[in-house]
Design goal:
Oligomer: single chain
Helix content: over 70%
Length: 301
């Protein structure tokens, strides 16, 4: 998906076909969010906004929702959900409604507000759109398991497992193992978490891999395997913090503190002082493009 979206973006840029670039950039930004490349995603979303202005189109809601959900800032996600819901209801666009509820489920799972995550994920699944509905099954299982609603989680796992078998990718099978581990105990759970991390480690879906380490660490801590828990939680915290996946990083930090380990705060990098478009210009200049080439790429003078 990530590679395909990247190729589509480059082909659309090369051909100058702005409508094609519009759709390709949207797919690439959503992929960026899952890969944990949030800085690149925000940069490409600025390019997408420019393309939308040129062709007279509205910004698709999927890009900002995906980035905001993984970044984990509640006010930002809530504002996007409210605006997208109003527009989607007016157009009868159920896929956008599914996307808003998936975003809410990711946000609330990150914040540890599992009842709200469960309700949002259930609504997203009900819309039955393949992408967001499938992703929301994993959110539902995690939230339901944390709330002790194991029957609800088991039903969702059955659906997720069927989709994972049909797909057969390490991403899908890794998420299945991670979800199944949440409903397992003892050695079975241990093996499933390790299988999930191994499979997700072979993919570019860094956000889900980091969550695998987080969930495994949380389970290990509750099993009183404190030293092993610290290792997993430390890995999760470092990965999530580096990616800017804020809510899940804070959740990992809380778990680390519960093991008795101090959590170091990372310094804010100077790149955050730049606007998204300035970051993209810097990235293109780093890649060797000339000023005219950068201007043509970003549709600016």
């Amino acid at each position: 998906w990530y590679v395909m979206a990247s190729r589509c973006v480059e082909q659309a840029r090369g051909s100058g076909a702005l409508p094609a670039l519009h759709f390709a950039l949207n797919a690439r930004v959503v992929a960026d969010a899952f890969m944990g490349e949030l800085v690149g995603g925000f940069s490409r979303m600025e390019e997408l906004k420019t393309v939308c202005d040129v062709i007279g189109s509205e910004l698709p809601p999927y890009s900002p929702l995906a980035l905001a959900a993984w970044r984990g800032r509640e006010a930002e996600v809530s504002e996007l959900i409210a605006a997208t819901t109003t527009e989607a209801l007016a157009r009868g666009e159920t896929q956008a409604l599914s996307a808003t509820q998936w975003a809410a489920a990711v946000l609330y799972n990150g914040l540890g507000r599992y009842e709200e995550a469960l309700a949002a994920a259930a609504r997203a699944v009900d819309y039955q759109h393949l992408g967001f509905s499938g992703w929301s099954l994993a959110e539902l299982i995690e939230a339901a398991a944390r709330r002790g609603k194991l029957d609800h989680a088991a039903d969702a796992l059955e659906q997720l497992a069927a989709r994972a078998r049909d797909c057969g990718s390490d991403w899908a099978l890794g998420i299945e193992s991670r979800s199944r581990a949440l409903l397992s105990e003892g050695e079975a759970a241990d093996e499933l978490y390790r299988d999930a991390i191994e499979r997700l480690g072979r993919t570019r879906v860094r956000t889900e891999l980091a969550r695998g380490h987080l969930l495994f660490g949380e389970w290990l801590r509750r099993e009183r395997r404190r030293l092993e828990a610290r290792e997993q939680l430390r890995t999760a915290h470092e990965m999530l913090t580096a990616m800017g996946v804020g809510a899940f990083a804070e959740r990992a930090a809380r778990e680390l503190l519960a093991t008795g380990e101090r959590v170091r705060k990372r310094r804010v990098e100077t790149r955050d002082e730049l606007t998204a478009q300035e970051r993209q210009i810097a990235r293109l200049a780093r890649d060797g493009l000339s000023n005219p080439e950068i201007g043509a790429r970003l549709f600016i003078s």
